[in-house]
């Protein structure tokens, strides 16, 4: 694994994590995209020779070739990543059509506790 | 028999495609979904019998050697989970057709449900780590769709948490897969135990923790559980029933495999502490809630704690108890959610403050609720008692008194949370003195609930054979796992 690749993976992981921690679903989706790319690069570098080709047809020294398995894995991972981002985008759009924003809200218990003094009001509002 | 394991994934996925083709006809969709799910269930029973009498079955795709191909392996544990999972999914499918809710009538329901069948079956049969990840993704993708099918405000809100957390879990899992491959050079579940044992302790510990985080989030263990009680209640009843029964157990299944086979004798204290915290936090959360579905959801978290405790204790006896506990918990939890579905169908709510007197109106429903409720709390004649007894006995044998004490106290508190549902919904008078009589619901709904409850009673009735099967399963897991692939060539 070259330093440049390791550095790139580290940057993608950190920026992705930073974005995922936001409240806005759009930023979370961008973060998940970056994290997905970081992981895909990580899979790719887990092959023996990161800048080699899997099968060249000439030569027989294993050190010349990289392991083809991670390359097959990464293709699957990319496709899954695409499907997930597409689904998240459609959910963000749905969220936007319902209430005009894409902020991820607190869960029910948290909101109930936040409104503790008038619990009954909260009950009524939510049904 | 050999070569056919891939059909457990391919068959339901083909059914998904067919359902899309006939999207205009709901009847055709239902027929396809029922026949595919039924066929998979029957086939899984055949696989279980074969695995128990003859030996493990392996299918390698495309004629590649086992180590590098996509493999499906059915050993005792996988086959057992496959059977119980598919029986539940079939029962819930029939129940949902009876209920005929707005979700179920959507043209997307049947395809998504069959994809869920494919994902769950595949996850239990996956023979390599990446294949396990892909099957997880199939079942998660299907669960995202089922959870947000209606697209209502509530579903989108809780669905967002559910989807984002599970996507992050998947990313952690793939990172784990990449690092396992980078350090060991293989992803085959048969080869990994030996290769991992050869790694330096620090590296192995890092890998085991990474996988534990990924599967722990799926199983909803203590620090990573908060998504579950918020998202499951938002789904329609049959969907939450199958999620509650199965999806967390897929995570527990993965933890069971990785921690007992790949990283034996490590993380014991960590897992015990996680187990205790999961049990306590789950049950306290359940007592604090005022909605049937939310109470039941928190109880899932608490039950996961028992399973993790058994996994942490380790050894054949503990693993056998965990296997039995999982087998009992899946139908019990499913049936409780199915009962809640009948209540909701008639009353339009599952909030305890707006329910009451259901026991007076329908004695059958009250019995349907009481049997799994006692079973979950671990009251002696029912199935939960046997599973809990197994875990607790091992805890006493190993001198871990504190985890036994926690487990016993949590058992009583589980009963308290069940009594909360009983007094709130079934006992007393109805809020507006509704007439006595059976609740309005489709006969298929109560038939299927009876079926699942009868299954939990059958588990007690045949506890002897099932427990000895669980012991054989645990013995399989304890011995060198390479044995699972050498038998039953493709």
Protein model, in words:
The complex is a heterodimer of chains A (127) and B (490). Chain A is mainly α and 127 residues long. Chain A has a single domain, classed as Helix Hairpins, CATH 1.10.287. Chain A is 68% helix and 0% strand. Chain A is built from 5 helices and no strands. In chain A, helix 2 runs antiparallel to helix 3. Chain A is elongated and about 75 Å long. The N and C termini of chain A lie far apart (56 Å). The model of chain A has no long low-confidence stretch (mean pLDDT 80). Chain B is mostly helical. Chain B has one domain. In chain B, 74% of the residues lie in helices and 2% in strands. Chain B has 20 helices and 2 strands. Chain B has a two-stranded antiparallel ribbon. Chain B starts with 6 loop residues before the first helix and ends with a helix. The C terminus of chain B is likely disordered. Chains A and B meet through helix 2 and helix 3 of A and helix 5 and helix 6 of B.
Task: Summarize the entry for a quick read.
With 127 residues, chain A is mostly helical. Chain A is built from 5 helices and no strands. Chain A has a single domain, classed as Helix Hairpins.
Q: Write the element-wise H/E pattern of chain B from the N-terminal end onward.
A: HHEEHHHHHHHHHHHHHHHHHH
Per the principal axes of the C-alpha atoms, what is the gross shape of chain A? Answer: elongated
**Which spans of chain B of ≥5 residues are poorly predicted at pLDDT below 50?**
480-490
Mean pLDDT of chain A equals 80
Oligomer: heterodimer
Provide the domain count of chain A.
1
**Largest sheet properties of chain A:** none
Which architecture name of chain A does CATH use?
Orthogonal Bundle
Strand elements of chain A, count: 0
| CATH class label of chain A | Mainly Alpha
* Terminus-to-terminus distance of chain B: 9 Å
Cα shape of chain B: globular
Class by helix and strand content of chain A?
A: mainly alpha
Task: Count the beta strands of chain B.
Answer: 2
Low-confidence stretches of chain A: none
Q: Rg of chain A from C-alpha positions?
A: 22 Å
CATH topology of chain A: Helix Hairpins
């Amino acid at each position: 694994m070259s330093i440049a690749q390791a550095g790139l993976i580290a940057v993608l992981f950190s920026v992705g994590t930073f974005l995922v921690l936001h409240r806005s679903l759009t930023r979370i989706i961008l973060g998940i995209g970056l994290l997905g790319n970081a992981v895909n690069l990580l899979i790719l570098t887990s092959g023996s020779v990161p800048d080699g080709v899997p099968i060249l047809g000439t030569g027989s020294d294993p050190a010349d070739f990289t392991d083809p398995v991670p390359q097959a894995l990464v293709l699957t991972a990319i496709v899954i990543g695409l499907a997930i981002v597409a689904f998240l985008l459609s959910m963000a759009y749905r969220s936007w059509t319902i209430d005009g924003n894409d902020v991820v809200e607190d869960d029910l218990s948290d909101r109930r506790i936040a409104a503790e003094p008038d619990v009954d009001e909260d009950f009524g509002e939510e049904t | 028999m050999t070569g056919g394991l891939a059909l457990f994934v391919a068959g339901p996925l083909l059914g998904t495609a067919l359902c899309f083709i006939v999207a205009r006809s709901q009847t055709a969709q239902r027929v396809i979904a029922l026949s595919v799910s039924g066929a998979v269930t029957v086939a899984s029973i055949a696989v279980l019998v074969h695995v128990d009498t003859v030996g493990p079955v392996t299918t390698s795709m495309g004629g590649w050697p086992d180590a590098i191909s996509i493999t499906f392996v059915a050993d005792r544990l996988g086959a057992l989970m496959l059977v119980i999972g598919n029986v539940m999914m079939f029962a819930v499918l029939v129940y949902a057709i009876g209920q005929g809710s707005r979700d179920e009538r959507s043209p997307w329901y049947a395809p998504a449900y069959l994809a869920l069948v494919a994902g769950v079956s595949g996850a239990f049969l996956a023979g390599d780590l990446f294949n396990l990840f892909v099957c997880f993704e199939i079942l998660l993708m299907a669960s995202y769709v089922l959870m947000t099918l209606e697209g209502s405000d509530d579903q989108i809100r809780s669905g967002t948490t559910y989807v984002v957390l599970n996507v992050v879990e998947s990313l952690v899992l793939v990172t784990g897969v990449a690092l396992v491959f980078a350090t060991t050079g293989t992803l085959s579940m048969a080869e990994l135990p030996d290769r991992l044992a050869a790694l330096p302790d620090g590296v192995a510990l890092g890998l085991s923790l990474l996988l534990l985080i990924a599967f722990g989030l799926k199983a909803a263990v203590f620090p990573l559980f908060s998504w579950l009680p918020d998202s499951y209640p938002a789904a329609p009843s049959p969907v939450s029933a199958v999620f509650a029964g199965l999806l967390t157990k897929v995570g527990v299944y993965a933890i069971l495999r990785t921690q007992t086979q790949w990283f034996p004798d490590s993380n014991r204290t960590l897992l015990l502490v996680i187990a205790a915290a999961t049990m306590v936090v789950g049950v306290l959360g359940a007592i604090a809630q005022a909605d049937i579905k939310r109470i039941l959801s928190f109880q899932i978290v608490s039950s996961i704690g028992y399973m993790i405790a058994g996994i942490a204790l380790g050894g054949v006896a503990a693993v056998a108890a965990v296997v039995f506990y999982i087998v009992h918990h899946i139908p019990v939890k499913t049936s409780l959610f199915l009962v809640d579905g009948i209540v909701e169908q008639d009353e339009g709510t599952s909030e305890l403050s707006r329910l009451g007197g259901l026991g007076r109106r329908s004695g059958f429903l009250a019995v349907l609720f009481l049997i799994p409720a006692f079973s979950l709390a671990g009251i002696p004649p029912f199935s939960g008692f046997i599973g809990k007894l197994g875990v607790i006995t091992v805890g006493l044998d190993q001198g871990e008194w504190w985890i036994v004490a926690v487990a016993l106290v949590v058992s009583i508190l589980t009963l308290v949370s069940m009594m909360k549902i009983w007094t709130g919904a079934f006992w007393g008078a109805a809020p507006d003195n509704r007439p006595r009589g059976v609740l309005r619901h489709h006969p298929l709904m109560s038939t299927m609930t009876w079926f699942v409850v009868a299954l939990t009673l059958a588990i007690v009735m045949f506890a002897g054979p099932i427990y000895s099967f669980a012991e054989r399963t645990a013995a399989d897991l304890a011995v060198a796992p390479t044995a699972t692939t050498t038998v039953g060539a493709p």
